[in-house]
Amino acid sequence: MKKFKIVVIVCFCIGKSFSQNTSSPYSIIGLGDIEKSYFDRTSGLGHAGVALYGERNLYVGNPASFSFLENRAFQNPFYLDLAVRYKNINYAGDAITSSTANQSNDLQFKRISFAIKPKPRWGLSFGLLPFSTANYSFVGVKTIQGDPTSFNANYAGSGSTNLVYLSNSFLLTKNLSVGIQSSILFGQFSDKETIYTDSVLTTERNISLAKPFFKGGIIYKGNINKNWSGSIGATGSLKTTMNAQYQLNVTDGSTSLKSIDETRSNYTALPLMGAIGVSATYKNLYTFVLDYSGQNWSSINHKGTNYSLVNSDKISAGFQYIKNDTIKDRNVTAVYENIFQVGFFYSNSYLNTYGQQIKEWGVTLGAGTQLKRSPLALHATLEIGSRGSTNNGLIRENITQFGLTLSYRDFWYTKKIKKYN
Fold first, then answer.
1. How many domains, the chain?
2. In the chain, which residues have pLDDT < 50?
3. Is residue 78 in some structural domain?
4. Is residue 126 part of a domain?
5. DSSP label of 44
6. Between the CA of residue 398 and those of 32, 96, 360, what are the distances in Å?
7. Which helix (H) or strand (E) holds 5?
8. What residue ranges in 145-254 does DSSP mark as E strands?
9. What's the predicted TM-score (pTM) here?
10. What's the CATH code of the domain at 384?
């Protein structure tokens, strides 16, 4: 019961901490910046890992992975992951006019996941994941219809969407697993436009979203020969339309000009999304992974002045080396895993603005270890990359981020002295 209380308290604390401080002008469109990371071991592999699975590690990107977790009779292991990320962005481009306000930082909790094996062929996981964020603040000029004069304007907005998920996966054979992630995608966004004419014209919007969201997955693994093993995996989700509670207030100074509070059906949508990945492991030491993913945003048919939503894709690859340390304690042999990772990714985002599709690339490094004689394991990642361009008055974001995942593995229903291995 104490373990259950700890989990509930941690879930509440993490849930209250899903917020952001880093700004991105590109997050003004749609649901904002869609998160590319699952904040697990794949973060050090260029975020590639659709085909990965583990007996003692959670890979939350593919819901089919959880049935491959180990299942020990009479011990019932359970798994808990907590992830945190620090992010720094430096901005470059002609639109940056201040030499002292050209960067932003934040530190936030990003994920909590819990997993168990109720049955030998059934894996179950639930938790909280970030899906997208929006945070921006900039100044510009705007013309009002019927008036050729340009006026100074301020734009600011923030918000996020998150997933409360429940994943079930099942082993159809010892090598083939299928899974389904059932989620509630929810969030809230607010934005404010202030135009300085003879008075102050202010437009404020508040939008609340909530919608069921489903993603399926499959993984097949097998031995290639006596030295090599491999796996292939895929995930996919169908187009999902989203309703919204929409509030709009327009004021001219202290005078209210317009007020709306209504439910809007089909306010926005998520497109058809899919990913496929492969992995190959040599002598259980060296692993190579490669992923490709795509999202059909053009089907949303959303466009505005100088921007439109277009199909996006991403390719990511990584390499991992595992070194095991063996320790003997009271005639019990324990194996502790240490990992070292490097990865790369390149993506075309779903935003096309001023005739340019926003692109992003990055390199990642990862390292992890299990604390000896402890149920705890740590995994740290470093990512350095860039998004956007300085052409046509756009902004390039130079991104550095550091992530840390804490994994806890323990056993239900056992009062015996535990040996962690």
1. 1
2. 1-20, 415-420
3. yes
4. yes
5. G
6. 18, 13, 10
7. helix 2-15
8. 147-171, 176-196, 200-223, 228-237, 240-252
9. 0.88
10. 2.40.160.60
